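Justification of computing resources. Each target in the renewal requires a structure prediction run like the one illustrated here; the chain below, 190 residues long, is used simply to show the kind of job we budget for.
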Amino acid sequence: MDFKELWQKVPDKWKPFSDKWARIIIWPRAFFSEWDHNEDYKHVIIFNIICGVLAGVLKTILTFGGEFSAIIRCPLTLMLLTFVGGSVFYLFLKLSGGEGDIEPTIKMVGYTQAIGVFSYGIPTLGPLIGLYQIWLLTVIGEVLHKLDTRRSLIAVLLPIALFMFIMIMISTILGLKFFGGILSHENQMF
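Resulting structure tokens:
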């Protein structure tokens, strides 16, 4: 098989990914409602890897090669966020009265990483685009866990707020320790 034959097969292989990606971004409620809950993890993992590589390539292009390591870092980040974030999200959905199981929740969180192509790929505006993922996660709470929009949104925002609070506390403690050490030295010559 030569390169030309291989290149001609690319659209056939690319179409299922691009169709799934578009359905997640444009029609998330329909996608998550119709999605097969018994789907194998390998589909989610492959989806995350492709989204991560695309995000890494986009970031490398937009930073003129300055973030070349993003091609490796982004897929790993998306995978970590899928499994760890999905588990934490499941816990907060259950605390909010959700009815779903952990395995489909983690898989669905993996599919919300579709927005990661832009949120990790675009250096400055990406995090603002990433706010759309909050909506995608809220839809998961509604569709899979049978929560109303308000309770689902609270289950999404609560771990984010808790994480931010913990990071602020750690930064404050480390900052006080650092500057307290500097300021406490008497008779020090600068």
